[in-house]
């Protein structure tokens, strides 16, 4: 068992429509979902926090509404999502309740991870749910998201959630056993990679646009998700979800592909704050606070001697010592 898995304390698990919904019947694969929830319950007993990012609402809703096969118009997709989301939420609620766990539905749109204050609010909500022992089940709010303001697929949504929540590990359950050098179904020379330490142009070229009618995602979107995840300090793994108890199989068989982050989520988050956000003000601190910050400790209100500028929760600020030197 790899250390990236055993050491992970916060895990995001993404489940695709093709795994959750029977494509022929348009019905939920309840036995498979039950086995997956067994795996999540096991992880919880190990002290790990688990966030689920689930597709399936549109796939379930289109069957109920008897919509035709093939690509759907935006308004039809939104109607299908509105109907399917209810079935999906009830399915997770029932499956987790049977294992003594509470499921919490979280619907997000692109702005919730792109706009700083909404990002903080979403992060705070999911963090609170985890502290209270619930299992957040996240999905894009397809009912209101237009083509211009949507993630477009749940692989990238899962990566954004993993980044936002400083997750240690992102699991993409797929219909293939990992990342291959070529499409495994059509190329006899295809070889699964156990590990991808860096996403190079050669790795990107290997990704084939493989998807199904029920799923908007393919291997290309999984590579895009991997870029988001590893940059945020989150290890990502692609593993088969076609087996029963897929998380248990991931831990025991090791048949998967790992995309490795170069830094931990905390370091990556600090780098993002320091290099991306424009400071909106400054805090001037006394010598004791400056010394505490220099040794990696937190800043306490008593150490602040002056505030400059106007800023709100979530804004970046510069920290200066009494001589005006920037120290953070």
Automatic annotation (TrEMBL):
A biological process term (GO) from this entry: amino acid biosynthetic process
GO terms for cellular component: cytosol
Occurrences of domain PUA (ranges): 281-328
A Pfam cross-reference name: AA_kinase
Family matches, as InterPro entries: AceGlu_kinase-like_sf, Asp/Glu/Uridylate_kinase, G5K_ProB, Glu/AcGlu_kinase, Glu_5kinase, Glu_5kinase/COase_Synthase, Glutamate_5-kinase_CS, PUA
Source organism, top-level taxon: Bacteria
Domain Aspartate/glutamate/uridylate kinase: 10-240
PANTHER family, per the entry: GLUTAMATE 5-KINASE, ISOPENTENYL PHOSPHATE KINASE
NCBIfam families: proB
UniProt-recorded name of the protein: Glutamate 5-kinase
């Amino acid at each position: 068992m790899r250390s990236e898995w055993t050491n992970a304390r916060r895990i995001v698990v993404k489940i695709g429509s093709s795994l959750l919904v029977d494509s022929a019947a348009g019905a939920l694969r309840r036995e498979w979902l039950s086995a997956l929830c067994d795996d999540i319950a096991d992880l919880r007993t190990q002290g790990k926090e688990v966030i689920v990012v689930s597709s399936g609402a549109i796939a379930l809703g289109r069957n109920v509404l008897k919509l035709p096969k093939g690509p759907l118009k935006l308004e039809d997709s939104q109607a299908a999502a509105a109907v399917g989301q209810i079935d999906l939420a009830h399915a997770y609620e029932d499956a987790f309740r049977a294992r003594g766990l509470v499921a919490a539905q979280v619907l997000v749109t692109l702005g919730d991870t792109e706009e700083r204050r909404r990002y903080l609010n979403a992060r705070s909500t999911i963090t609170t749910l985890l502290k209270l022992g619930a299992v957040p089940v996240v999905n894009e709010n397809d009912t209101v998201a237009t083509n211009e303001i949507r993630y477009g697929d749940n692989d990238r949504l899962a990566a954004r959630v993993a980044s936002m929540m400083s997750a240690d590990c992102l699991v993409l359950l797929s219909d293939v056993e990992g990342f291959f050098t070529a499409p495994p179904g059509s190329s006899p020379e295809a070889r699964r990679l156990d590990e991808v330490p860096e996403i190079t142009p050669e790795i990107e070229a290997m990704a084939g646009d493989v998807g199904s009618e029920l799923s908007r995602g393919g291997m290309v979107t999984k590579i895009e998700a991997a870029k988001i995840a590893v940059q945020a300090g989150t290890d990502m793994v692609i593993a088969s979800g076609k087996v029963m108890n897929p998380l248990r199989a991931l831990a025991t068989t090791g048949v998967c592909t790992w995309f490795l982050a170069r830094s931990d989520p905390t370091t990556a988050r600090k780098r993002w704050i320091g290099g991306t956000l424009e400071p909106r003000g400054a805090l001037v601190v006394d010598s004791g606070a400056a010394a505490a910050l220099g040794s990696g400790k937190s800043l306490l209100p008593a150490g602040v001697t002056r505030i400059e500028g106007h800023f709100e929760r979530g804004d970046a600020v510069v920290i200066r010592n009494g001589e005006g030197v920037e120290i953070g």
